[in-house]
Every structure is written in C-alpha cells, then in structure tokens.
Specification:
Number of helices: 7
CATH architecture: 2-Layer Sandwich
Largest sheet: 6 strands, antiparallel
Strand content: 15-25%
CATH superfamily: GAF domain
Radius of gyration: 17 Å
Shape: globular
Strand order of the largest sheet: 5-4-3-8-7-6
CATH topology: Beta-Lactamase
Structural class: alpha+beta
Number of domains: 1
Distance between the termini: 35 Å
Order of helices and strands: HEEHHHEEEHEHEEH
CATH class: Alpha Beta
Length: 239
Amino acid sequence: MRVCVSCVAFHSLESPTSTASTALTRPGGGSAHSSNSSRKTSNGSNFDRNRSSTLSSGMWLNPWPEPPYPEDEEERLIVLRELNIQDLGSSGKFNMYCEVAAKTMKCPISYVSIIEDEEQLLVANIGMAHTTLPRELSFCAHTICQPSVLVVLDTKNDERFRENPMVKGDKGAVKIRYYAGATIFSRNGHALGTVAVLDTKPRREADQEHIGMLQHLSFLASEKMTQSTIHEDSDSEFL
C-alpha cells in the first residue's frame, strides 16, 4: 500500500474554509511564532511567513490550527539552503532508516524528511505515493518545534490534527491516526527535518524503546545530512 496524501492535501488547500486564527503553544514549551510576520534574516534578506498560498492574505484560512514556527526559523532556512538536497533525495542513503523505523514500530508509512519554508520534502519513504507535502498540513511542522520526540497516539483526539485532511480522510484518502516523529538537527542545533512513522490505526501507549530507536535514527540522519552540506561549520558539533 502506498498512500497518496499529497493529492488530498493540495486539493484541500485549493478552497480553504475561513476560520479564526489559532494561537498555539509548542508542545516542548514556549510560545509559537505567529505567521503574520515579516522581518530581516541574519543575511539581510526579508523573510515572509505569509508566502504560502494559504497564508498569502495574512490570515489562517484552514479549519485546523496553524502549525508553529521554530524560534530560529530564519537561520534554519539558511542552513537548509546549504544542503545538497538533490543528492539527499537521489542517493538512497536514508532508505535503511525508513525500513528500520517501519519494521520496528510496525507502521505502514515511514519517512526521512526536510522541512522547507513552504513544503515538507520526503528524501526517503516507505508507503507514500508522493514526496512533497504542504507545510501547513505537516505533522512534522510541529515536531521541529520541540527537542523531544513527538508522539500522537490518536490524531482524532489531538486538537492540532483532528481537522487535518490527512486525519479526516478527505476525498477517500486513508485516515492517519498515529504519528511519531523525531527532529533531525544540524551540527549547530537547527532543525532540518524529521524521521517519522505513521499508521492508520491509533495506539494506546508509546513504547519507550521504539521512541528511543526513532531518536537514534534522527541522530544518524543528522550525520548523513551534514555530510551533504555545501559549506560546513567546522567549529560546530553534533547534538
């Protein structure tokens, strides 16, 4: 089975239902940035969080809560631009991580991804028919805002995700009910992406050994991604 969540995702964003903007607090603590901001990055360029088509009006127009942004979003995007993304997606170096995660956690879907400014790009995956997903639909957009593994035992019971088209199963798509994701950090601590698993069935509890394994895979993925960095910071260290 290969799940086409991108089809329902993009279709759902074509005609969003207007709702009031929702403020979120990051699961790991601290307030999430509002998307209605535009400021200078450290290299002097303008960073506009309203570039996404859904946010182009400066308002959140979807029935599910707006995902948060990392505190260091501007710097994080600069680091991402230094990655050799084409090499990441074509080398197959992350396929093993997907296989280990899916088999160990008994999930039909697993992936290694990077979170860009508007999209989530899957550089390796099992069970997904497409390799991109709008960031505003991404579960992992929440994961990269916390240092620990994000586990959602039942997405229908989580206010952040219950109205998400991938949970509701819009247009006949499968309904994602379980999610677990660990953040991939750069050498200097910026969130690059995630190692994650998804299932169509909810779970009652989190297996701590499995969670530890997922976090370890994120450490390994961090090392692999850093090796593909065009300009590495020799003075920084892995987390």
